[in-house]
């Protein structure tokens, strides 16, 4: 009887640890998306090209504002963030 209980307990501990690792990786991906969007918007605002290390970035310019949208893949789905910076006069 205790063998079955131990097996179920160990299995649930492994599942919870897996979820914790996935959640931490997803939060890291979200922070990477925030960083990439901000860096891309700043780079576009000053006229410099930006290539993210991880994920994809798209930049649009409208009304003197550069808007960058970064998408970074993660274990629990893609994380997306948007950043807006004013464009400098060139």
Description:
The chain is α+β, with helices and mostly antiparallel strands. The protein has one domain. The protein is 50% helix and 26% strand. The protein has one helix at 2-46; strands at 56-62, 65-72, 79-86. Strand 1 (56-62) and strand 2 form a beta hairpin. The longest helix has 45 residues, at 2-46. It is rod-shaped, with a radius of gyration of 20 Å. The termini are far apart. The mean pLDDT is 93.
What would you say about this model in short?
The chain is an alpha+beta fold. It has one helix spanning 2-46; strands at residues 56-62, 65-72, 79-86.
Largest beta sheet: strand ordering: 1-2-3
Q: Please report which band the strand proportion falls in: under 5%, 5-15%, 15-25%, 25-35%, 35-45% or over 45%.
A: 25-35%
SS elements, strand count: 3
The number of helical segments is 1
Report the structural category. Answer: alpha+beta
What composes the largest sheet?
3 strands, antiparallel
Secondary-structure element order, as H and E?
Answer: HEEE
Shape: rod-shaped
Q: What does the radius of gyration come to? A: 20 Å
Given as residue ranges, the uncertain stretches (5+ residues, pLDDT < 50) are: none
What is the CA–CA distance across the termini? 76 Å
How confident overall, as mean pLDDT? Answer: 93
| Total discrete domains | 1
Which short descriptors sum up this protein?
90 residues, alpha+beta, 3-stranded antiparallel sheet, 1 helix, 3 strands, rod-shaped
